[in-house]
Design a protein that fits this description.
The complex is a heterodimer of chains A (388) and B (73). With 388 residues, chain A is of the alpha/beta class. Chain A has eleven helices and 16 strands. In chain A, helix 1 runs parallel beside helix 3, helix 1 runs parallel beside helix 7 and helix 9 crosses helix 10. The N and C termini of chain A lie far apart (52 Å). Chain B is globular, with a radius of gyration of 11 Å. A two-stranded antiparallel ribbon of chain B has the order 1-2. At the A-B interface, strand 10, helix 5, helix 6 and strand 14 of A face helix 1 and helix 2 of B.
Chain lengths: 388, 73
């Protein structure tokens, strides 16, 4: 370990690893700190991602692909399945291997990595972030850097310490529980999404297949719902009803910041990426691909700033992110608000009318237009983000 | 009986660390930066907590409890 670095990245998830890699590729000295003892574990994720979302950053590899996805099944409260078929659309990952491999690509580009390093404060001088304070195996340490990149996830505090407004409204937090269970008899190429007041009000319930008859089964509900009934009780109800004897291999909790990106994701000496910047697709709750995109932009800009010796260059990150995905997430947020409060009857009606159109015309865009046909302003939004 | 003191008086929020999964939902919604979360360690920073209960509502596995009586020191 050196005494100081050009760039310190806090958190070794996908966003942190990609940020480290892109910064190191620009020739900057980079250190990535991870609070847990392992990169990639524990997994707090449904693990589904589109093929395009992965391939931009890493060559798909069967070692971390648990299932190949070619269908979505959206299931309405009365059990009607609306099925949307894709080509070779995406994957269910093995995140514990995937994250590890991503971190290795950062290391190959020249980044250093330190696990069991819990960042508990920032060095701030004259209003600029100049490094981190952290606990490493029981010892309090400090390291200076020109730029700190906060990739510290949903529980991010790095941005907050730097004076950015990062805390999210509890109504925008999708509070999730998930189990990985075995002996789940579902199609291993289909992602299943269940809707309705009994399964996941204001969110959705998912079954994502994994290799050999296992599946990730879980749901997210907003903190508003959690006031009355926790995600855990919804999951228990569902399992008792549908898979009462399924052996459970893992069970986890997690939060998805299901909102638009923070108003500010950079300030002097600091940049935020991934869940920490709230770079999650608010409609799907997916955050791996968008976090990696955020990480790649931030890492590249940070590397350029160091190279040019012009640190204020990092403030261009906000705009670049906004143009690449931030704007799109604002559209997704509007569509989400239009959909997630539907009544059960409405969900049923949508599934029935979707199934009455010819099979080859059943696309995701068509499904959303069916759902929102009486909200013309949202139809424009759908046209912007889906090919109908 | 001695109670823990929150920013605004008696602390009424309690995290049961033995049942916690350390997922970070509560930290994300806490407006006061009053929750410390390490790898497998979590606690409330008493003097920052305002008993707003947002962490209680956002906990997916019911590990954070609101206790009107107050949390004992």
């Amino acid at each position: 370990m050196k005494l100081d670095y050009d760039i310190i990245v806090v958190g070794a998830g996908p966003a942190g690893s990609i940020a480290s890699r892109f910064a190191a590729e620009k020739g900057a000295s980079v250190l990535m700190l991870e609070k847990d003892r392992d990169v990639g574990y524990p997994v707090r994720c449904g693990e589904a991602i589109s093929k395009a979302g992965v391939s931009e950053f890493i060559e798909p590899d069967e070692r971390w692909i648990s299932a190949h996805i070619n269908k979505f099944a959206l299931i309405s409260p009365d059990g009607t399945e609306a099925i949307v078929e894709f080509g070779d659309a995406g994957y269910v990952l093995e995140r514990r291997i995937f994250d590890y491999e991503l971190a290795k690509t950062a290391a190959k580009a020249g980044a250093e990595i330190l696990t069991r390093a819990y960042v508990n404060g920032l060095i701030i001088e004259n209003g600029k972030v100049c490094g981190v304070k952290f606990d490493y195996r029981g010892q309090q340490k400090e390291l200076r850097s020109k730029i700190v990149i906060g990739a510290d996830g949903v529980e991010s505090r790095v941005g907050r310490w730097a004076g950015l407004k990062t805390y999210i409204d509890f109504r925008d937090m999708e509070c999730c529980v998930q189990i990985t269970a075995s002996n789940i008899n579902v199609d291993d190429g289909t992602l299943y999404f269940y809707f309705g007041q009994n399964v996941a009000p204001g969110g959705y319930f998912w079954i994502f297949p994994k290799v050999n008859g296992a599946a990730n089964i879980g749901l997210g509900v907003s903190g508003m719902v959690g006031k009355k009934k926790s995600a855990l009780s919804f999951l228990n109800n569902f399992m008792e009803k549908n898979f009462p004897n399924a052996p459970v291999l893992t069970s986890i909790a997690g939060g998805v910041p299901s909102s638009i990106t923070l108003e500010k994701i950079s300030a002097p000496g600091i940049m935020l990426v991934g869940d920490a910047a709230r770079q999650v697709n608010p409609l799907s709750g997916g955050g791996i691909a968008s976090g990696m995109i955020g990480g790649s932009i931030a890492g590249r800009i940070a590397g350029e700033a160091v190279k040019m010796n012009k640190l204020e260059h990092i403030l261009t990150y906000d705009k670049e992110w906004h143009n690449r995905l931030g704007k799109r997430h604002e559209i997704f947020e509007r569509i989400k608000n239009g959909i997630y409060n539907f009544s059960d009857e409405k969900f049923n009606k949508i599934a029935h009318s979707f199934n009455s159109i010819p099979k080859e015309k059943r696309t995701l865009g068509k499904l959303f237009t069916t759902a929102l046909f009486n909200q013309p302003s949202l139809l424009v939004d759908i046209a912007k983000v889906f090919i109908i | 009986m001695e109670y823990r003191q929150a920013k605004t008086g008696k602390l009424m929020i309690d995290i049961l660390p033995d049942k916690c999964d350390f997922c970070g939902c509560c930290v994300g919604v806490c407006p006061e930066d009053a929750i410390e979360l390490k790898e497998a360690e979590i606690f409330i920073i008493d003097e920052r907590c305002t008993n707003c209960a947002k962490c209680v509502w956002s906990c997916p596995i019911e590990v954070i409890k609101f206790n009107k009586e107050g949390v004992l020191a």
